[in-house]
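Archive maintenance. Older records in this collection stored only the sequence; we are now back-filling the structure field for every entry so that each record is complete. The fields below show one back-filled record exactly as it appears after the update. Entries are processed alphabetically, and FecR domain-containing protein is next in the queue.

ARCHIVE ENTRY
Title: FecR domain-containing protein
Organism field: Methylomonas defluvii
Length field: 323
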Amino acid sequence: MSSENRQKIHPRVVAEAAEWFMVLSSGNVRPDETAQWQAWLASHPDHQMAWARVEFYTDKFKSLPPQVAFAASEALNAPNLNRRRMLLSMALLGVAGLSGWQVSRGRYWQEWSADQHTALGESKTITLADGSTVVMDSGSAVNVDFSVNLRRLQLVKGEIYIETAADTGWKRPFVVDTLEGRVQALGTRFSVSQQQNRTQVAVFQDAVEIQPADATSVKQTLGAGHQVQFASNHIEPIHRHNQNKPAWTQGFIVADDLPLSEFLLQLSRYRPGYITCAPEIADLRIIGSYPLKDTDKILAFLEANLPVKLSHPLPFWVKVLPR
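Back-filled structure field:
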């Protein structure tokens, strides 16, 4: 996600959300901590957006204890949900168990049943029946649906990079559908990322046409060297980029003046466990390209070159603290 396109949330708030996420995932949550988290989540819309961002980047939301996971999901979908209703929902779910919550939310079944998946830290290249190539980022899921009239991908989760091939003898449109709408290739190389209530598209060659799901009269042609985010009812302003391919397809994570809290969230998509940072250092700026094949080396580099130190409160938790 580019620094231009990120929703404006203070890095300190993102760091606080990540810290709460780790506390609630520890499996040893005190009642007073649950109450404090609920109060924090309800106190400002930015807290809810930051929680959603942590959910997207860590892809570990479903590993939360069921009561907490359900309450978080309800809070995101209905910010004015009162405490009594939330606690009642948590109690009911405690009887139903995590599997009931996952089925009720629906999207996890879609992820598990998708045609193609990638695990945490894994990327995959697939060749489609028409010769097009799809590269899948870490923690992604996609369905493939080719018919006599249409070449269609459904991006369920994560990010994909596509190089379309000529549809010899058929001339069928090539489209990618997301929760927010449709992206149609116009003979092109492009990437599509399913984010929290947004789809991001970047074009590297030729062009695509974007059509939001709930605004069928709104269409936008996006040319090479440009990227944009869109929701189900509108398309946001277009921005330029200078990449030939997404950095992750070449094994790198790129930071262009990125706050430390955001950088660590993105890094967490490529390694097991959790990474959090103290709120007071959340706004430290990160610049550079970092190879993803060894995320421990990235953390060691940060410790050596920034006024920070690494702590390991638990085997699966890396905490970045002020030095």
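Update note: The two ends are 28 Å apart (CA to CA). The CA atoms of residues 261 and 282 lie 5 Å apart.
Entry marked complete.
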